[in-house]
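To illustrate the input format used throughout this study, we show a single complete record. The first block contains the structure-token representation of the backbone; no residue identities are included at this stage. The design step must infer an amino acid for every position from geometry alone.
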């Protein structure tokens, strides 16, 4: 039995009793009139309307507002909540200090303006402290370290090291994250929530052999990260209540922790960016580190297969970039120098067109 159903029953009983009471009062006031209905009829009808009202509408002003407020608080970070509370306290203190002199104004201003001041200063305090929350916490952390210049410099230097990076299931299964972590280019702590680990285990136990193989590879990659990575890897039990999808949980958790998400999932990338969450995409990193080539440059390519067009040959660079060689079919299984003629950037990656060097 859900809590909403219980509140429906309670509301039905309460509003039925109120309806019967009001109906009896209305019946007693109208019964002396000629042609009026008996008091019991008014009690029955209005009581029935009250029961229907309580059964249908009670959750809309009891349970559902509380659930909506709870969902809103879940999406707001602890830093923002603390800043809003601190701003509210400061605003109320200022309003209280000004309330006494303002109350000396002639009526009705002396009675109305103090209340208006409480609302205005409370809202202003919340707005200012939430907008400047990063500066506020920087000042508080500086005071906690003693406020010295050397500590401030060390704090700036260790800011990247203290960063938390959320890992998505797709980037663990992909496997390249282990190599990237070993290079030292990632600074911070790799954070893996339990719900990501549960999804990875679900994939590893799948009946589909391909999905099962990918899940087990993800488990091996995770083991490598914990044993060989030069940056710390940490599992966390933090969960997001009221949300079932793993991608939605990651986005909400990233907003709460104010940290980026490491992924190669295109859909998660777009959803996170739309909600203002920083995304580190492994595919974008791979495209960014590919060697830049200009038309006219010479490189050595081993032609391994035929192309789609007549007389074309296809080879690949060390980073996996496809090179289409014009008139390269006759050089299959041979390594030849080619001259770049065109570089084409597509959504799937980059293609290079070349011809054998004369």
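Output of the design step:
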């Amino acid at each position: 039995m859900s809590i909403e159903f219980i509140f429906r029953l309670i509301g039905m009983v309460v509003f039925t009793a109120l309806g019967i009471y009001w109906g009896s009062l209305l019946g007693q006031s109208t019964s002396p009139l000629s042609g009026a209905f008996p008091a019991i009829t008014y009690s029955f009808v209005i009581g029935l309307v009250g029961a229907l009202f309580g059964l249908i509408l009670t959750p809309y002003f009891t349970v559902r507002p509380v659930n909506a407020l709870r969902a809103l608080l879940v999406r707001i970070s602890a830093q923002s909540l603390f800043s809003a509370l601190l701003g509210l306290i400061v605003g109320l203190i200022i309003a209280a200090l000004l309330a006494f002199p303002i109350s000396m104004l002639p009526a009705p201003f002396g009675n109305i303006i103090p209340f208006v001041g409480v609302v205005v200063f409370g809202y202003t305090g919340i707005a200012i402290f939430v907008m400047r929350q990063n500066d506020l916490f920087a000042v508080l952390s500086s005071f906690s370290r003693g406020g010295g210049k050397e500590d401030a410099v060390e704090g700036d230097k260790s800011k990247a090291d203290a960063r938390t990076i959320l890992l998505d299931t797709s980037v663990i299964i992909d496997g390249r994250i282990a190599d990237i972590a070993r290079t030292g280019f990632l600074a911070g702590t790799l954070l893996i929530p339990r719900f990501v680990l549960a999804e990875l285990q679900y994939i590893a136990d799948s009946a589909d052999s391909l999905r099962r193989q990918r899940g087990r590879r993800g488990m091996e990659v995770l083991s490598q990260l914990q044993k060989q990575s030069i940056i710390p890897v940490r599992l966390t039990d933090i969960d997001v209540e009221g949300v079932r999808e793993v991608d939605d949980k990651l986005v909400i958790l990233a907003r709460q922790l104010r940290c980026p998400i490491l992924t190669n999932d295109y859909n998660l990338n777009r959803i996170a960016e739309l909600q203002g969450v920083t995304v580190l995409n492994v595919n974008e990193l791979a495209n960014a580190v590919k060697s830049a080539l200009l038309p006219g440059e010479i490189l050595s390519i081993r032609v391994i297969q035929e192309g789609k067009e007549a007389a074309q040959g296809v080879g690949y660079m060390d980073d996996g970039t496809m090179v289409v060689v014009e008139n390269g079919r006759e050089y299959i299984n041979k390594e030849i120098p080619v001259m770049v003629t065109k570089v084409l950037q597509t959504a799937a990656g980059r293609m290079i067109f070349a011809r054998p060097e004369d």
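Structural context for interpreting the output: The longest strand covers residues 334-346. DSSP finds 14 helices and ten strands in the chain.
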